[in-house]
Amino acid sequence: MHPAKSVIFFTTATGAGYGLFIWLAILSFMGVLPASPLFGLIALGVSFALIIGGLLSSTLHLGRPERAFRALSQWRSSWLSREGVMAILTFIPMGIFAISWVFTSKNTGGVALIGLLGAFMAYITVFTTSMIYASLKTIPAWHNGWTKLAYLILCIMSGAVLTMALTLLMGSLTGNEKFSHAGFHLTMPTAIFLALGLIVKLLYWRHIHNSKPVSTAESATGLGEFGKVSFAGSPHSQDNYLLKEMGFKIARKHARKMRIIAAILGFILPLILIAVAIHHLHGMGRTIAILIAATSCAIGLVFERWLFFAEAKHVVTLYYGESEV
Amino acid sequence: ERMGINPFETVKETVALSPEVSDEVKTSTCYMCACRCGIKVHLKDGNIRYIEGNPDHPVNKGVLCAKGSSGIMHQNAPGKLTKPLLRVGERGSGEFKEIEWDEAMALAEKWLGDTRAKDPGKLAFFTGRDQSQSLTGWWASAYGTHNFAAHGGFCSVNMAAAGLYTIGGAFWEFGDPDFDRTKYFMMLGVADDHDSNPIKIGLGKLKTRGDAKFVVVNPSRNGYNAIADEWLGIRPGTDGLFIFAIIHELLRADKIDFPSLARYSNAPWLVIQNPGEADDGLFLRDKKGFPLIWDVKKKKAVSGYDKDISPAFAGERKIKGKTVVPSFELLARRYMDPQYSPDAVAERTGLTADTIRRIAAELAHAAFEEEVIIDQPWTDAWGRKHDKMIGRPVAIHAMRGISAHTNGFHTCRAIHMLQVLLGSIDTPGGWRYKPPFPKPIPPAPKPTPPHYKPNTPLGGGSNGFPTSPDDLIVDDNGQPLRIDKAFSWEHPISLHGMMHMVLRNAATKDPHEIDVLFMFMANMAWNSTMNIGETLGFFTAKNDDGSYKIPKIIYSDAFYSETVPYCDLILPDTTYLERYDCLSVLDRPFSAAHGVADGIRQPVVKPDRDVRTFQTVLLELGARLGLPGMVNDDGSAKFPGGYPDYLVNHERRPGVGPLAGWRGKNGDKSGIGEVNPNQLEKYIENGCFWSEEMPMEHQFFKHANQGYLNYSKKMGWIGEASPVVFQLYNEDLQKFRLAAQGHGERQPPEEHRERVDTYFDPLPIWYMPFEEAEIDTDEYPIHALSQRPMHMYHSWGSQNAWLRQITNANKLHIHTEMAASLDIIDDDWVWIESRHGRVKGQVKLITGVNKNTVWTWNAIGKRKGAWGLKHDAPENTKSFLLNHIISDVLAEGQKGIQYSNSDPITGQGSWYDLRVKIVKCTKAEWGETEPMYEAFKGGPVSDLDVLQYGKDMKGEDTGGKADLREYIGQRWANAANIDGIADGHGNIKKGDKT
Amino acid sequence: MTCLPKTAPAKKLGLVIDLDICVGCHACAVNCKEWNTGGKMAPLSDLDPYGSKPNGVWFNRIHTFETMNDVGVSRTVHFPKSCLHCDDAPCVTVCPTGASYKREEDGIVLVNDDICIGCKLCSWACPYGAREYDEAEGVMKKCTLCVDKIYNENLPEQSRVPACVSTCPAGARSFGDLNDPNSEVSKLSAARGGVALMPEQGTKPVNRYLLPRPKKTGQGVNAPRMLTHEDTSDDGAGMLARWVDKILTA
Ligand SMILES: Nc1nc2c(c(=O)[nH]1)N[C@H]1C(S)=C(S)[C@@H](COP(=O)(O)OP(=O)(O)OC[C@H]3O[C@@H](n4cnc5c(=O)[nH]c(N)nc54)[C@H](O)[C@@H]3O)O[C@H]1N2
Ligand SMILES: Nc1nc2c(c(=O)[nH]1)N[C@H]1C(S)=C(S)[C@@H](COP(=O)(O)OP(=O)(O)OC[C@H]3O[C@@H](n4cnc5c(=O)[nH]c(N)nc54)[C@H](O)[C@@H]3O)O[C@H]1N2
Ligand code: SF4
Ligand code: SF4
Ligand code: SF4
Ligand code: SF4
Ligand code: SF4
Ligand SMILES: [Mo]
């Protein structure tokens, strides 16, 4: 599948944005996050920016953005529609939580409960996003449990890294130890989710590498009984929409390189940096290390997402020379 | 329709089931190719909404091919010429100035007038994709030039000549396989062909019937060949051997239709055996000139035309002091010879001997064990009654895979010989003539020599059918007199002229110089010429004084083709949807085997440009020049109404005009009849065609069917209602050979003797194609061919926004095994090198091709600056023409003559003799094709980024919903095999009233 | 209605395509474009129509395949492909707007281009590449089964057929109700064992493809494998002798 920037940004950004919110809500509920309006503004601001930015970029890639509102109507059957509806609904608890934090400096008790509700709905939204891809039979690389799992875990993972970065940054800037401590609460979870994330991706890659082809040029043409089917003539000399959108090809060697980059930047390096930061660094040094970890994770996830599309073969390519998908 | 803005509402669409399609529907005849299908054009505010096939039309019965379906984009093409052009820059630069028609006509009149006042023969008038040769030929003869021909010389004259000199008809589109009845259909060397839709309809029907076998002989397996029961991937140029081997088998097994041979062929005619003498190899004739046969019952020689003869087919006898044998014995001796056994030819043809034997057995089985009988009494030319029509259901069709070789004439004769030996010609299930064929063998007209008299008509047609050296157009030294050297000793039976040699000869002033070259509808500076590079040089060649060697070139095209920039005066033509046109029986008939038909085109849209119908322009020029037949006695124009006026009012002979339908004052006559002023209206009422179905008793054995022959005479197609006797042994050819052997008044000049002696064999022969014989076959081991894509018509498709999306870059198709040996994969760039040059292109690997052969689509490659395409169009940058590497001439022989790269008998251009080697390009050479010519200046170049034809054509819903009708393709044939499917056609069941 | 019809459509209109006689001429593809560019889905936009990357919206496209079996016998098969009007059309259920829907009355799958937002998800969901995005219009388009032609009272009966069907020179295309086992198309498909493409995708296509018939090589026709020579002499003298005495009256 053609890895469109808009979609890569949409999925990674919203994932991180929702993840960030989820952790903020949890930490608030645990009562370990000072209800500083400034921090609320920054942290929730980042979260909302990522989510809204992501959703916007996804609507911008529509042929008719001005009609986007119609996408809400088919929640009965369409995961894309469900995602739209959930995203909007989720803004309600998220909004209330944010407002009371930023304007009434409250992020605990009832507010925290609303926050948790928001977090829960956010997670469902991420699930609907994953289902948009996982529900497509035509793309075996997406049509499997690993796809959903990856979306769900990477959301929490990137959120955690981001939360740590923000809290520690706040801590060192304001000198308010509370923030840093809130961050330390996440050390373990973050490490665990980074590890989980890596494992899930590795298993995903193994899955798409090992899984048997779903369809073949023979089943696509019905000509199997005559032997092996090969492509002898194209309906058109230049690429058409189908080939531009779904005919994307990536060389095995290239893919392997990208996977290594994704694994290192997205998971391994952040893991190391966090470990080192927590155990061997202090003050600004530690914060910077975590910030680097966050950045590295973000870049790594972009690679991961690019691959998610680039490596996904669509069965329609069977009509254009692929022998099995 | 109502559309709320409630985001959760499901908007339901109400679909318009009965939108208005058009405000007017006009019928006409398609001209996206030469097949001439009937069309119904739906118009909306004068614009074309939709073109569909006319279900009532005899040619296409409602279907329409890809080309025909894209007529809208032909009409919409940015490359259309818009105004007369006068060259201002150098030839080939493309620099023109637009002029008014008055000036253009005045110029043309002056150029043509001056030449005619000097010597009409100094005009060379050659036409290309043409369907009005009866007009252009008549015009040329009235003008007085002997230098006229259409493009048949490089097209498929071998098929025409071989057919007309053997059976009085021809393949091409002048005959039809009996798709309804045949049991065995063999197709040799066909891609799409002229009879484009009828062949597709027929093949579909034949295969759906299910009781016939379809065999193809073709190095390539796409298109028609893909659906054959058996594909024989023969090596190009060897079909003659394949046919001979089949005949060898039939003779050896005595599987010959002797009764048919006795009745309908010259097999029994006695041939004089008198080596070295002037009558050797001629038929023994009686005083009246009738050929004699030996009657084994009467024990004497009688006329071969007599009734109730018992002819001898073999045995040497002495009659009237002459040693004679039946021509059949000569035939049998030749092809029974071991050199033509399946084993002997297997290797050269690339087919196994077993396969050839099996095909021979299958042919014999179909012909003799699977007779098709129609219970229909008929009377033969001798008045004998036959109570039924017995068919030998073997049908054969062949085209340019056979003809476009230097051995094509003889190979095509061999195929006709096979048909005759099997007795299948024009029998049920066989191959059938389309009226006005059959004609006498050969037809009567002879080519007319030049007279060099100012302002004088030629006094005959410039082209005709030579039957002896006396008919050649040569001087006393036997040198050519025509600019194309047609009808000379080099190519004596070049019936269609040799347009492909005109530019070389005119530029080298060999045999003579010309003043004006006048061309119509032929892309001679690109895809319809061999040896493009040198040919462009001929266009631009100059004398020492800086003047062009071809002083003036007038050209009529409808589009900015590659040829336009090389001409001086451009007369922009209308498109086929903008003009009256005529598909005449005098020209290229589109009859069906069961009845004659002709038709017209009518303007369906108005030109939005300053263009004029070429035929009308030609008639006006004729009038201005005062050509006989084109002016009244008072000198005024005879056809002020232009072409339509001529179509109705011109009479070639009393009662015979361009159109055969609705003749006579009140339109009640057909064929021959007085002029009918309302004739065109009648045609339009009837869907722009006329057809006349013949009674079943006239539909078969037309060559010897009394009723049919009388009808043919009545229609004015033949002079005498006498039978057409198949000429297996061709005496006319022998006459040329005798001359070469030193007999008669007119003999070939020394340098041509051997060639004429060799190739004018009265019986079919096979010889290695000339290029193959001349080159080192180890260096050039591969055959290179081109094929027509079914969705493109020569150069026209590339300017068509829809068709060009299907193919805008042609690849070289090569066998996967050859590719492996050359270490080549899909889309690699390769050099295709012939002895004549090299061209660069990309490859596509396939398995459906002969292993020693590569092929590509024809005429996709274009030159920058032509056709309105952007310069970076793939047609200009990635596509290639084999024409660049096909030489128009052969290597100079010992005798110092350089013959045209054409068939030695007919002058047919031999496009498919090409031999090449494939060389993988270095990576540095990838990306763009070569040779790459500089772009023309000033041609139209489209700047359109998005085309949205039809955006504003959605029709208003008039409401209502018609009942559904099921459509069954090949309904007739499917109904016969599957119960539950009703007979009928398409979505109309027998008995339905519509 | 972007949920599939609750009650299965009364009719299942579709095409039956005979690969045994399709010669790959592209007539159906071009005639389809010609009809539909002025029809319900008008226009079928063409990008860069005269330039280096011409590509436009087509509802029907003709592919060519070759098959090769293990004994080295190969075939060339021309293969037209358009929307198969699936029973379980994923292109419908994924659509977030309801623009992509299946008609209850005849099962035709259509796009309502007035509300389509051009999210392209349906083209991802279609296994057959039957959905064509119109980049110029920003909406998805597809084969309409010529819904604006087959019922059209402004056309003569013979023209009330999908454009691709009536124009096919080989007669390789048939059209009708594949829901009714007694319909002619059903009989045709049954008689020839019509197949569905990619059944494993679970889309339940309505259109059927008739596979190429077995080739009649020697075996096919009941002719002998070779003729028996009446004369094996080198120069055929034997035959000639026989013919010398041949007596027949014509
Ligand atoms: N390599 C290779 N070359 C070949 C062949 C091959 O098999 N292989 N085939 C050969 C054969 S058989 C033939 S017949 C030739 C065909 O080649 P051509 O005879 O050149 O035919 P086209 O190129 O189709 O068209 C000739 C010209 O007709 C113009 N034209 C189109 N419509 C009209 C009209 O309405 N009025 C006028 N006045 N002009 C119009 C076109 O613009 C074009 O410039 O090609 C030959 N060239
Ligand atoms: N769509 C379309 N139709 C056309 C035309 C067009 O341009 N486009 N042009 C029209 C014109 S002008 C003409 S002349 C006709 C030509 O009609 P065709 O003869 O059908 O056209 P070609 O493309 O010359 O096809 C030649 C075929 O012969 C095969 N062949 C080549 N060499 C040999 C050989 O030695 N032996 C055998 N057995 N086969 C061989 C090639 O593989 C090819 O399939 O088509 C007419 N119809
Ligand atoms: S075959 Fe096609 S292009 Fe040729 S006349 Fe018929 S419809 Fe037109
Ligand atoms: S029109 Fe008929 S023969 Fe031609 S490609 Fe389409 S289905 Fe095949
Ligand atoms: S073929 Fe594709 S577009 Fe057509 S109904 Fe099936 S899934 Fe939908
Ligand atoms: S592109 Fe249009 S039709 Fe397709 S899913 Fe999106 S909204 Fe529905
Ligand atoms: S049914 Fe109509 S829309 Fe569909 S492919 Fe055929 S012509 Fe095109
Ligand atoms: Mo031709």
Can I get a quick summary?
Chain B has 994 residues and is an alpha/beta fold. Helix content of chain B is 24%, strand content 16%.
Blueprint of the fold:
The complex is a heterotrimer of chains A (325), B (994) and C (250).
Chain A (H helix, E strand, L loop, with lengths): L4 H26 L6 H24 L18 H26 L5 H25 L10 H30 L2 H9 L1 H24 L6 H5 L6 E6 L7 H6 L5 H29 L2 H28 L15
Chain B lengths: L23 E6 L8 E7 L2 E7 L12 H4 L1 H5 L9 E3 L8 E3 L2 H18 L4 E5 L5 H11 L4 E2 L2 H4 L1 H8 L10 E3 L6 E5 L7 H14 L3 E5 L12 E3 L6 H14 L5 H7 L5 E3 L19 E4 L4 E4 L13 E3 L2 E5 H10 L5 H8 L3 H17 L2 E3 L3 E2 L5 E2 L2 E3 L2 E5 L1 H4 L4 H14 L9 E3 L65 H9 L8 E5 L11 H9 L11 E5 L12 E2 L10 E3 L11 E7 L12 H11 L17 H8 L29 H7 L3 E5 L12 H9 L16 H10 L9 H10 L10 H5 L7 E6 L15 H4 L5 E4 H7 L6 E6 L2 E10 L6 E5 L16 H4 L37 E6 L25 E2 L23 H7 L6 E2 L2 E2 L5
Chain C lengths: L12 E6 L8 H10 L9 E2 L7 E2 L3 E9 L5 E9 L7 H4 L6 E3 L6 E3 L9 H5 L5 E4 L4 E4 L4 H4 L12 H5 L5 E5 L6 H9 L15 E3 L26 H8 L6
Parallel strand pairs in C: 1-11
Antiparallel strand pairs in C: 1-10, 2-3, 4-5, 6-7, 8-9
The structure holds ligand MGD (2 copies), iron/sulfur cluster (5 copies) and molybdenum atom.
One ligand MGD binds next to helix 13 and strand 29 of chain B.
Primary descriptors:
heterotrimer, B: 994 residues, alpha/beta, seven-stranded mixed sheet, six-stranded mixed sheet, 27 helices, C: 250 residues, alpha+beta, two-stranded antiparallel sheet, binds ligand MGD, binds iron/sulfur cluster, binds molybdenum atom
Mean pLDDT level of chain A: 97
Helix content of chain A: over 70%
Q: Widest sheet of chain C: strand order?
A: 10-1-11
Taking the sheet with the most strands of chain C, its summary is:
3 strands, mixed
The shape of chain A, in one word, is globular
Q: Hey, roughly how much beta strand do the residues of chain C contain?
A: 15-25%
The helix/strand series of chain A, from N terminus to C terminus, equals HHHHHHHHEHHH
Query: How many helices of chain A does DSSP assign?
Result: 11
Q: Looking at the chains present, what oligomeric state does this protein adopt?
A: heterotrimer
Please give the count of helices of chain C. Answer: 7
Class inferred from helices and paired strands of chain A: mainly alpha
Into which percentage range does the β-strand content of chain A fall? Answer: under 5%
Shape of chain C: elongated
**Rg measurement of chain C, Å:** 25 Å
Query: In total, how many beta strands of chain C?
Result: 11
- Residue stretches of chain A low in confidence (pLDDT < 50, at least 5 long) are none
Low-confidence stretches of chain C: none
Spatial extent as radius of gyration of chain A:
22 Å
Helix content of chain C: 10-25%
Distance between the termini of chain C: 77 Å
Interface with most residues? B-C, 148 and 125 residues
